[in-house]
Amino acid sequence: PAQVLSTDLSAFQRATTVEGKDVLVYKDANGVRVSPDGKDFKAVTGADNLASNGVAHIIDGVLLPTKLPNIVELAESVGDLSTLVAAVVGGDLADTLRSPGPFTVFAPTNAAFAALPAGTLDTLMKPENKAELVDVLAYHVLPSEVQSSELGLFQAVETVEGKNLHVTVWGGVVKVGPSLASAE
User: Fold this and answer.
1) What pLDDT does 178 receive?
2) Strand, helix or coil for residue 128
């Protein structure tokens, strides 16, 4: 939804289309390439064709929007998140995490759930403890999409549950916890 000439481009940018999905645009000594997913690139073969209502860049293929899975579909596709999926279903949160969001989920693995004190997960999964299960799961969800590349050295972020998490990045390693002393 903007007129962007090839001279306006940097080496890399993410641009949102009128349809609402992002495309990746790369510019280097070989020219300009566009991709919906960072894999299937189309080359710009004719740049900067001005029109009365914008500009057209001719490309050598058709861009097909990628359909990313929602949070639940993603978790279901990863075997090591089966306990999380069961907990999300048990807490009746699947529909919420299938909604448009945006969300960031710190998804505990099966091993992470197994490391809880004995009986904790079984207790949380009982129907009478659903509210407590929902609180625990909501503490792992941010009400926005945050990519690891957007993180600074330290930030306090508020979860859907309403409490803060501390997120640190050091040496390319992201750690999350309720306080700096226990950030893991």
Assistant:
1) 86
2) helix
- Encode pLDDT of 19-67 as tens digits: 888 899 999 998 999 998 888 899 999 999 999 999 999 999 999 887 7
Cα separation, 2 vs 55, in Å, equals: 9
Measured distance CA(6)–CA(11) in Å, rounded: 11
Q: What is the pLDDT of residue 44?
A: 97
140-143's contacts with Cβ under 8 Å and 24+ in sequence apart are 140/105, 140/106, 140/107, 140/108, 141/97, 141/103, 141/104, 141/105, 141/106, 142/103, 142/104, 142/105, 143/102, 143/103
User: Using an 8 Å Cβ cutoff, are 159 and 138 in contact?
Assistant: yes
Q: What's 65's DSSP letter?
A: -
Q: Let me know: does 142 contact 103? Beta carbons within 8 Å.
A: yes
